[in-house]
Structure formats: C-alpha cells, structure tokens
Amino acid sequence: MALGKEWFTEVCEEHGSAFSLKVKQKLHEEQTEFQKIEVYDTTQFGKLMIIDGFTMVSTRDNFLYHEMMSHPVLYTHPAPNRVLIIGGGDCGTLKEVLKHPEVKLAQQVEIDERVTRLSEQYFPELCDSNNDPRAALHFVDGLKWVKDAEAGYYDVIIIDSTDPIGPAEGLFNEAFYRDCRKALGENGILVQQSESPLYHVKLIKAMRDAMGKAGFEQFRTLDFPQPLYPSGWWSATMASKQGVLDHFREEESQNKSFATLYYSSERHKVSMVEVPLLAAVLD
Amino acid sequence: MALGKEWFTEVCEEHGSAFSLKVKQKLHEEQTEFQKIEVYDTTQFGKLMIIDGFTMVSTRDNFLYHEMMSHPVLYTHPAPNRVLIIGGGDCGTLKEVLKHPEVKLAQQVEIDERVTRLSEQYFPELCDSNNDPRAALHFVDGLKWVKDAEAGYYDVIIIDSTDPIGPAEGLFNEAFYRDCRKALGENGILVQQSESPLYHVKLIKAMRDAMGKAGFEQFRTLDFPQPLYPSGWWSATMASKQGVLDHFREEESQNKSFATLYYSSERHKVSMVEVPLLAAVLD
After folding, report:
1. In terms of CA atoms, which chain A residue is nearest residue B260?
2. Cα dihedral A165/A170/A173/A174 (nearest 10)
3. Mean pLDDT of chain A
4. For residues A202 and A278, what is the distance between their CA atoms, to the nearest angstrom?
5. Which of A198, A232, A259 is opposite residue B233, by nearest beta carbon?
6. Which of A96, A239, B127, B218 is most exposed, with minimal Cβ within 10 Å?
7. Pick the catalytic residue: A61, A90, A160, A223?
8. pLDDT tens sequence across B150-204
9. Is the pLDDT of residue B141 over 80?
C-alpha cells in the first residue's frame, strides 16, 4: 500500500528499506546555516526531529540510543571525570552523562545551536540537565575544538553525530581520530555512533581501521535496537588508547543510582563480545 | 515523501509506524484455505513472504528470529531430545533445531502446507534440513495436535506463529498453554514469539499471566533486533514447568559445532535478565 501525506518516511535507498511514522502535524521547519531541521508531532512516537530528511530523535525511542552512547563507555573508563560530546545537540546524551557522579565536566560541542534550541522547545525532557553546573554547552565546530584541545585533557569523547555525509563527514576519518587520541588521557576512550550492524558493516570496519591507524589500541562495537534508524538495529563503536576495554566497573554499574530502560550491567557485559555477524568481519 | 508502487509496506496502525521494502517483482500470490500468501523478490532483502499483509520472513534478516527462537531454549533445556514446533512453516526454526545433536525428533506442525511448499520454492536454504531423518513435517492444526499429545512426551515446544489474530489467535491463551504444559516432560520448556518489547508490553504481560495460570512456573522474555517486524525490535518468551530457566548449558553453547550470526553464549547469558523496560512491567 502507498502511505499518504500524513506519514513521514525516511528511505534508505542503498538497502531498499524505509521506515515511516504517522504524523499529526509539522511543528517547525527551518534552514539553518548548516542543515534543514524539521520537527513533527507524531501520533505514537511523540515529537520527531528530522535533519536533512533523516530521522534524528523521537520522544518514544531515544532512550535506547542515548543510554547506549553514554553508560557503556562511562562504566568502562575507570574514572570518567572529563567528558566531551561532539554533536549531540538534542542534549539527550549529555543528560545521561550527567547521571554519573564521577563526571566533573561534560562539554557538549554542537556546531548548530538551532538543534539545541529546538530540542529545548520540543524535547524539554532531554534538556532538563542543561543547567547542571558541570555542563558546558559550546556551539562551535567540533573538529576544530578537538584539534585545539589540551593534550590528555579528556577521559571520554562521545561522537554523537549525524551520518557520515554532510556536516559530520569529517568526524569519520583518521585525522580526526588522531586529534581525539591526543586530547584523551592515558585511559581515554572514544565512542562513536557507527550505523547499522546489518547495513553498514563496511563502514564499521573502515572506522575501526582508521581508528587503528590513528593509534587506538582496542575496539568494541556494541549493538542495540533503534526503531527510528535504518534497519531498526544500530551500533556504537568504542576505541581505547590502552587495553581498558576488557573490563568495566561492573559493581558500580549494578548499583547505579539512576534508572534505565535498556542499559543494564548484564547488557554491558554482553557488549564486551561482538555479535558474531560483526566479529566474523572485524577480526 | 510518498513511496511508489515498487515498495511493499506493512503499516502498524496501532503504533503509527510502517516498514517498507523495495521490491523488484511479485513472484507469487495465492489465497489458501487459511490465509493469503504473497512472495516478493526485493532489491536488497532477498525473497520476502507476506501472509495476510504482514511480513513473515525475508532471506536477509530471518537469521535473527530463527536463531533466537531455537538456540536459547535448546541450550537451556538439560537434554532436548524431542522438540515440537507449532507453526514455523518456513522451516527456518526446524533447520536451527536440527543443528543440535541432542535432538532425536523434531516435529513441525504447520496448519497450512502451502507455507512450507512455497518456502521450499523461494527459501530453499531454510528447507535444506527437511529430509533429516529426525525431522517430521505434519500439516494439521497445532491446537488439536497438542491437545491429543501424549502427556510428558516433549522436552521443548516452540510456538513459531503469526500474530495473535487470525489462524494463530488460539495459540495465545490459557487453554492452549495448559495443553502444552501437559505435553511437556518434567524439565519441559515452551517458547513463543511474543511481539515487540516496545509496542506490545501489555500482550507480553497477558501471555505470561496466562502461562502462569496454566501452571508454568518460570518465565523469561528475550529480546532481539528484527528489521522486518514492527519497531524492528522483537521478543520471544520462555516458560518452564520447573525452575530450569536460571541456568543454561553454557559450556556446550560456547563449544557449539555450528556457526551463528546473532546467537552466542554471551547473548544467551544476557537473555537470562530481561531488559529493564520489560522487567519493570513484568515483575
């Protein structure tokens, strides 16, 4: 059947699939200096933000992505005091990061301030930690920010970006990873959203190769469901300067003081071992 | 954007979402005694079988469902010699079940023989164990089969059915679960596909309540990605007559003689603990 005008559809031409959400109305549309942002009110997924035609975040299912971009890396680092988020303008990752008492500073460096302003308006629940004294929001180019960073300053860098086309393209290459590595302390870990384990195995492999060339030593690609994104199955790839990815602070994860809907210490543990489909290609 | 006629779309009206696959052509369409079956050739997902408008199985992503419907329950039972599959006419679950050397008999009881004949034609890779001497294919009503079964005969019953509407409706209620329980041996385990953890929490809870009323003692709902099904996130619920769900044959799972793309002993272990989203509702 053909879907009518009351649906927003994202087509993934390369893999011959599409995902659609039924919408009540378009709440906002603007062309910023960087990209086109739309916000819809959907019938069942709450609010929906679209950037350049691609689904970014919905009220209903964002917990999966935001929990998995933050808690595994933060419970893996032995003492995550200083965290840098590149992108992440909807502030959902920042909110999860700030739930960790070990975090003393969480900087969010988003190139497009409008993403954050629209998130404050339409996804206020993701932004309610923005005034935490440990949070610092900067609206500048993340590439330049990392290049200029003091060597060894950060414990964790989270790259919460759009797909590797358009403004985010430079966030998926060796030169950038080299700058990240320099900006990370001894036990430093980088984590980056790495697309679909079913659709983008080659991209994941290329990312890991580039991270390796940049000097990172260990890698793990975690996978998790994500209805909004192509194939409904998504991933994040961790890379560490030293061999710190074999363990995590399991007891602290088990006794965490905040509730989650997807992340748990058990899921963290299984993330330590890649899904066979990926392991076969990545090893 | 609106999708043209070259797409097959399944709409989930209740949750305001839809998933589409791009098709090259329709290969087959028939109205059987029980349901309407269509088969498409897609551009990127291989063959696609549709029953009464709902996606059933694709070449590309069926491994997720079939592995998770079979290996967790089979490695949880201490000695799965006799396995009954209700539904499962595409034979993909049967194929996975037969990979276990402990299995001496695997009966597949599918009400609609045409599902299997079409699978043999369009999904031959799922049917290549159908001539295994341990396999027995019966094309009769699964409800009646279970009611008439010898008490205590089966070790594992796998309910690999369509959604709880239409021909499969009777497979989701207390009376049927009671018959299953009677047909299972002392350490017997039932596993049933149980829809989306994001969309169908109430259904999962109702299933588990009905299983409990039928006398089952322990329950576990495993979740896994499944691009083809609504929300891209799916589940299977295990129920045991006795407390056998706290452990599994981990060493045998680790040393299994066959390859998998999703299942692993690590993923099995994490399946022992429900995703927090479900745990909060089910406990």
Report:
1. A276
2. 170
3. 95
4. 10
5. A232
6. B218
7. A160
8. 999 999 999 998 877 776 777 889 999 999 999 999 999 999 999 999 999 999 9
9. yes
Rg (alpha carbons) of chain A, rounded to whole number: 18
* A78-109 b/e (C-beta count within 10 Å ≥ 16 → b): eebbbbbbbbbbbbbbbbbbbbbeebeebbbb
Rounded to two decimals, the ipTM of the complex is 0.94
How far away is chain B from the Cα of A57, in angstroms, using its nearest Cα?
14
Residue A1 has pLDDT above 60, yes or no: no
User: According to the model, what pLDDT value does residue B2 have?
Assistant: 64
Rounded to whole angstroms, what are the CA distances from A272 to A118, B193, B267?
35, 27, 10
Report CB contact under 8 Å: A1, B16. no
Please report, for the domain that includes residue B21, its CATH number: 2.30.140.10
Statement to judge: residues A141 and A48 lie in one domain: no
> Considering CB atoms only, which of A42, A225, A231 is closest to B16?
A42
pLDDT reading at A92 higher than 80 = yes
Distance from CA of A258 to the nearest CA of B (A): 12
Are A166 and A71 members of one domain? yes
Within 8 A of B222 by CB-CB distance, chain A residues are none
Is there a catalytic annotation at residue A160?
Answer: yes
How close, in Å, is residue B8 to chain A by CA atoms?
7
Inspect the interface and report whether the beta carbons of A198 and B227 lie closer than 8 Å.
yes
What's the length of chain B?
Answer: 283
Interface test with B, best of A10, A14, A19, A20 (most B CBs within 10 A): A20
Q: Give how far B1 is from chain A: nearest CA, Å.
A: 6
What CATH number is associated with residue A101?
3.40.50.150
Interchain pair A17, B45: CB under 8 A: yes
Residue showing tokens 């975040």: A57
What is the pLDDT, as a whole number, of residue B170? Answer: 79
Let me know if residue A255 belongs to a domain.
no
Yes or no: say if B80 and B156 are a contact pair by the CB < 8 Å rule.
Answer: yes
| Confidence grade of residue A106 (pLDDT, cut at 50, 70, 90) | very high
B125 within domain boundaries: yes
- Confidence (pLDDT) at B67: 98
Catalytically active residues of B are: 160
In a domain, A253, yes or no: no
Residue B206 has pLDDT above 70, yes or no: yes
Residue B156 resides in a domain? yes
Range of the structural domain that residue B228 is part of: 62-282
